[in-house]
């Protein structure tokens, strides 16, 4: 990753901090940029809802999203542990965690992942979620990469908290709840497009997101239109 590309990544994330930025698109871009900049296979973001419970809000691939969901369903894995402790979790070799997180480890290895790192999304003492980084090969991320990953997680956290400040009549919890509700509609739309186009769900999401951007529509708005049949992608 060149210095120019790294700068562009931070600028791109910072540029979303405007009054009407699309939160779902922002969170997805965080995962994509983290995977690119940190040279990992995939990334995912879990955030707390208004009841303080973790929810999956973004993932760079569909496979990663399913793994994140499994962590929540079983309450095991690096992301829940990172969130509850507020500290980074590093697993250089998933083959060593079969007893620690049996179901997560088995599914992650079946999905082709061999290492995982989780970084807290926090501002001072407030932890609002965690960033998961998956690697296809065993090995720990070096200290510089961890610091860079934490910086990206911090930028994402500041973005979410900035949204709360801009929209002073809304709380962060309400915004996150809206994002979670939008996620359901987006998942439905991904399925509709995948079935119609005969493509996989990752490709359908790329198509949905690209269409939303080119038509200057919010991703969640387009997804609702696809589900109710008023738009075709």
TrEMBL record:
Domain of life assignment: Bacteria
Family annotation (PROSITE patterns): ANTAR
Segments forming domain ANTAR: 166-227
GO molecular function: kinase activity; RNA binding
Keyword entries, A-Z: Kinase, Transcription, Transcription regulation, Transferase
InterPro entries, per the entry: ANTAR (IPR005561), CheY-like_superfamily (IPR011006), GAF (IPR003018), GAF-like_dom_sf (IPR029016), GAF_ANTAR (IPR012074), WH-like_DNA-bd_sf (IPR036388)
UniProt cross-references to SUPFAM superfamilies, sorted A to Z: CheY-like, GAF domain-like
One Pfam family hit: GAF_2
Protein name: Transcriptional regulator with GAF, ATPase, and Fis domain
């Amino acid at each position: 990753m060149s210095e120019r590309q790294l700068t562009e990544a931070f600028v791109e994330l910072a540029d979303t901090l405007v009054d009407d930025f699309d939160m779902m698109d922002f969170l997805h871009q965080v995962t994509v940029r983290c995977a690119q900049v940190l040279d990992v296979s995939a990334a995912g973001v879990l955030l707390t809802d208004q009841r303080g419970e973790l929810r999956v809000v973004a993932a760079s691939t569909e496979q990663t999203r399913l793994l994140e969901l499994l962590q929540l369903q079983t309450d095991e894995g690096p992301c829940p542990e990172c969130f509850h402790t507020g500290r980074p979790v590093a697993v250089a070799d998933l083959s060593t965690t079969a007893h620690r997180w049996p179901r997560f480890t088995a599914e992650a290895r079946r999905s082709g992942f061999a290492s995982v790192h989780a970084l807290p999304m926090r501002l001072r003492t407030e932890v609002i979620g965690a960033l998961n980084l998956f690697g296809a090969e065993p090995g720990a991320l070096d200290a510089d990469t961890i610091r860079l990953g934490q910086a990206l997680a911090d930028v994402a956290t500041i973005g979410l908290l900035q949204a709360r400040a801009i929209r002073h009549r809304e709380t962060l919890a309400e915004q996150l709840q809206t994002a979670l509700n939008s996620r359901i509609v987006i998942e439905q739309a991904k399925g509709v497009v995948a079935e119609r186009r005969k493509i996989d769900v990752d490709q359908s999401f790329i198509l949905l997101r690209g269409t939303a951007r080119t038509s200057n529509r919010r991703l969640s708005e387009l997804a609702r239109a696809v589900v109710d049949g008023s738009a075709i992608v």
